[in-house]
Design brief:
Blueprint: H1 2-6, H2 15-25, H3 35-49, H4 66-77, H5 84-91, H6 95-106
Helix pairs in contact: 3-6, 4-5, 4-6
């Protein structure tokens, strides 16, 4: 499923992950994304993605690894992936919110 979503997307550095590595190297504890913020923001995602399956045009994003989710949403935001609805939604999100959603969906199973 992730390979289908990511086809055509070039590898992109995940800013919060890179920051965590740098901060850990200098001995500062890196903050994890706010999973509660992700839960709050996820209500809009649930409208469509609750019905998503591996074979539908709307993918199942529950349990998706954080880096994959982050990269996919950034690709929509930067219009490297084509879907007008997802581009509109992703454009409204900042990196902190994308990271929070990524953390939430990585830790969540489909309802």
């Amino acid at each position: 499923m992730a390979s289908r979503i990511l086809s055509g997307v070039t590898s992109v550095a995940v800013p919060w992950a890179a920051a965590a590595v740098v901060l850990s190297l200098i001995g500062i504890a890196a903050a994890r994304p706010d999973i509660e913020l992700g839960r709050y923001l996820a209500s809009e995602c649930m409208t469509c993605h609750r019905a998503g399956t591996a074979t539908s045009t709307i993918p199942n994003i529950f349990g998706m690894p954080e880096p994959t989710f982050f990269e996919v949403i950034r690709a929509y935001k930067e219009k490297r992936l084509d879907n007008a609805v997802m581009q509109t939604i992703a454009t409204r999100l900042n990196d902190e919110e994308i990271a929070a959603l990524a953390a939430y969906f990585a830790a969540t199973t489909k309802p």
